[in-house]
Amino acid sequence: MSLWWIYLALLAFTASISGALTFPQHDARCPQSDQQCISILSCPQFQTRADVLRFRPRPCGFIGTTALVCCSVAPTGGLTGTRSPLPTSCGRTRVQEFFFRPSTGPPPSFELSGQLPGPPTGGRRRRQARLGGGGEGEFVAVQAVGGVDAQLGKWPWMVLFGRWTDDGLGNWFCGGTLITDRHVLTAAHCLRPEEAGNVGTHIGDNDLNIPFEVEHQVRNVSRIVRHPQYLGSQNDLAVVRLATPVKLTEHVSPICLPPAGAEHIGQDVEMAGWGLLEFGGSASDILQEVALRVADPAVCETAYRRVPQFESRFPGGFQGTKVCAESRDGEPRDACRGDSGGPLMVRLADDTYQLVGVVSTGVGCGNPEFPGLYTKVSSYIEWIVSQLT
């Protein structure tokens, strides 16, 4: 039976009971602790018109024209009665020491948009970033400031987006995070106006100058789904479907998603990416990791409201959909241009990692007055899971 019957039946039921009621535009509280306010089309308890008429769902809001209902969920945040498309094993990291890191000899030169060269004869190099800057007080798409070289194999879910040219895959422009063997979570602004057929990925890579340093995998992209309410820097999220699934190995594996609505205020987190090493500087070919801490979102929003572009970039304010992350020790540490779309991660008690945020934007890089801004993953679990097809 068409799902439109479900939707129409709910609207008829809503109309019969609403009277002067008004419904919130965002998630509302449901009366039972095991319920979440989600789209009726995603709730397994109301899959037929008969279900809607018999069990009479409790309306709790609308997102655009889509009706929201209180739907029972599993304790972990997953929907009851459904088989989750998320992996059963996730967030496990493998760390090893570098087996080779030469430190002498001049590094070879190469074009950022060209084909990747062979192993370098020298040590660490930086890519010249052909990117526009952003002055103080200007929002910029954000590389890791104050970071260190990531340990080989520590972040097996890291994804790097590039463009296919006549010379091969290169012109790297954004990061992402593997969340299943076929899906990557990234920032919507990274893939605007990119077309799926022009984009490729490196998954599980570390040093872009050493092709065989780690068994990374290369995949094409078959589909890009930006959040339907992406506007300015609001709902800055996209799900990317790989043309073929990755092979899960010790070097390539997905991260875990957090429970819906999870908060991480005050927790130590880490960000990783290949972005700029300083504001207006150059990018690193070696994956960087940065130690951060989740800041109070209210204090963070108050700071950002001083920026003239705030209302146009964040219409309606943060609305509980942002994570702010700042330095743990007062030193300049932050995501920066080129890190966009990459992960903000928290380590759990069982030594697995969850994805807290997706690098979105900020004011400069490492500015102590403005913590970096990340799209809050726990606010979008239902939408993310709905795109995993």
UniProtKB/TrEMBL annotation:
Transmembrane segments: none annotated. GO terms for cellular component: extracellular region. GO terms for biological process: proteolysis. Keywords: Disulfide bond, Glycoprotein, Hydrolase, Protease, Secreted, Serine protease, Signal. Pfam families: Trypsin. InterPro entries: Peptidase_S1_PA, Peptidase_S1_PA_chymotrypsin, Peptidase_S1A, Ser/Thr_Proteases_Immune/Dev, Trypsin_dom, TRYPSIN_HIS, TRYPSIN_SER. The keyword Disulfide bond applies. Residues 103-132 are annotated as: Disordered. Residues 144-389 form the Peptidase S1 domain. It is found in: Secreted. Residues 1-19 form the signal peptide. GO terms for molecular function: serine-type endopeptidase activity. Belongs to the peptidase S1 family. CLIP subfamily. This is Proclotting enzyme. The gene is PCE_3.
